[in-house]
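Input record (one chain):
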Amino acid sequence: MKIIQLSNGEFSSENAPKAQLDDGSFCIPQHYLKYRHTLASVEELILKVDYSDRYPIFVSQDNQGIYLQVGIIGADNYKSSNYQSSPVAQANSNGQSLSENHNNTSVVSAIKDKNLKIMYGRKWRVEPKLPSAEIIQTAFLAIKKVREHEVRELFRLTAFNKITTPLNSHHDVTMLINSKELKSKDVELSWSELQQELDSLCYEQATFHLVNIENRHEKYWLVELEVLIAPDSQLEELQADQLIVLIVNKLTFNEVCYQLMAELIRLSDRHVDEHFTFSQVARFSQQNDIKAIAKISANTRELHKSEEKADFEKDWRNENYQVDLTRVPQLNTGVFSERIRGILNSFNGIEGILPENT
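The corresponding structure, as predicted from the sequence alone:
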C-alpha cells in the first residue's frame, strides 16, 4: 500500500483511518493527524506556497512563538513625489484621458518611482498545534489583507486642494469619533454631477468613466464604470477598458465610493484566489469543482466511525479536546471581563469550553 508521506510537524496516531486517492495511493486525512510545528516545519510549508515576488512571506519566531509576516515591495504610497503625481490618465467628463488631450504628454503625468521600498504587514501567529492546512490558509489570508491595505491607500480623492486617501487604514480614531461632520449628507446626483465627482478620484494610475446608470425596481441602481488605466499600471487585476458594475441603494457619491472600494477589494481578493498556489495547485481557485471538493469531504469526515476504529476515535477525540483547551481565553477581574461574562451569561445553554478565570 502506497501512503503519502507526512510533512514535518505532522504525526499520525496508530491505526489512524486512511483515505484512498484517485491514483490508488492512500493518505491520512488532516483531521486525524497531530501537529507539533516548529520554525523549520512552517518554513517547509511556506516554501511550497507561491503567489508573487512582490509579496514575500516571512516565517519568523520571537518570544511569543512562530509567526508569518507578508512583505510588500513597491513604491512608497505616501512618498511626496509619488503621492502627488497621480493619475497618469485622469479622465474628463467625456471619458477621454488628459494624457490623450495633450498628445500623450500629460499635465499630471506620473514619473514612476524607480526606488522600490519594502514594507511589512502585521504578524500572524502560528500555534505549534495548528493543522498544516490552516497555516496555508493563514498565509492566504495574510496576503489578501496586505493587498487590501494597499488597495485602500491607492484609492485617492482630490478634495480641499489636496490629494487624500479617505478609505485608508490609518485615520485617527479619536478625531473621527469626535467629528460633527462624519455623517453623510446623502445628496442624490445626476449623471453629469456624478461623473464630475468621479473625476476627482483615481486608483493607482486608473480613473473611472461613467458608462451607464439604471434604476431597477425603484429599489437600487446599477452603475457601470469603465476603467481607464495606464499601460504600466501595477494592478494586475485591472485591465484596460474593464467594466465595473456597482449596485447602489442611493445615487450618491458617498454610496458609489464605498461600493467601488468594496468591488476593488473583491477584485484584489479574486486575484489572490486564482494565483495563490500550494505545491503548484491553486487551492482556492473558483475553477475548482465545488462538488469535487464536497465529495472529498463527504468521503473522509467519518472514516473513524467503525467498530475497529473505536479505540482510535476515543484517543482522537481526547486529543482534540486537549488542543481546544489550549485555545480557551482567560478572564480576570475588571470592567472588561465583567462585560464578557455578562454577554456569555445572556445566552442559555452554551456548549463548548467557556473562558476560565485567572
